[in-house]
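Following up on my earlier thread - several people asked me to post the actual chain instead of describing it. Fair enough. Here it is, all 258 residues.
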Amino acid sequence: MTNRVAGFYNELAPYYHLIFEDWHKSIERQGAVLNSLLAAQFGADRRRILDCACGIGTQAIGLARHGHQVTGSDLSQAAVERAKREAEGRGLDISFLVSDMTSLAEIEERGFDAVLALDNALPHFEPEELKDAVCAMSAKLRPGGLFLASTRDYDAVIRERPTVQGPSFYGHDGQRRIVLQVWDWLDRERYRLHMYITHQAEGHWESHHFISEYRCLQRGELSRALASAGMEAIRWLMPDESGFYQPLVIARKPAAVG
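Reply from S.P.:
Thanks for posting it. Predicted structure:
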């Protein structure tokens, strides 16, 4: 699984921003939403945050702009390298590392106030891998620290079994693009994602095709995995409540006793 998923994100990294209508505005919007959620949990102080599915830096950059001390990690070397460039170009001091979130072995620090796994990263995992990832993230949290993850609304997806998402048309003359997803269902809960990005580049059109596999990780399963790892105060926030574009799950690592 690791090589297959890393390959998908390595290939996608140069084009990932094209998935968004405006990636720069998405950085600002998501950073503001996440900062508000953290402030509601901890107060307005600066926090130490590990974004262990950082991709090209969407949330890590947004949170660093709000003054948080952010460490980003990802399975994809290409995504991490791009995230570094994006942060440096904005004058932000963010530490980025390549690490598999099922172990986070390369992250030497512990005691983070919050650990994030956003943008539908967890549904790449099989059940045992999911447990490993949740335990690894919990181990990086301080007592009382916050776990925060987002997924697609797979409770709805598994009922509806969509086969196409989009197409979405973005940009303006000279910088237009089309983003389309096709889903091939492999069994009741697994599908192969085909992502097509067609965009204008230097006076001509380019088309790219990226493939990965996902499992419909429903809210109950993830909540049980968090509870098994000893997390508490588990709750889900839907987009109309949180302002984030995907359902979010929040959980706490128990506070130290005594």
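The two ends are 41 Å apart (CA to CA). That should answer part of your original question.
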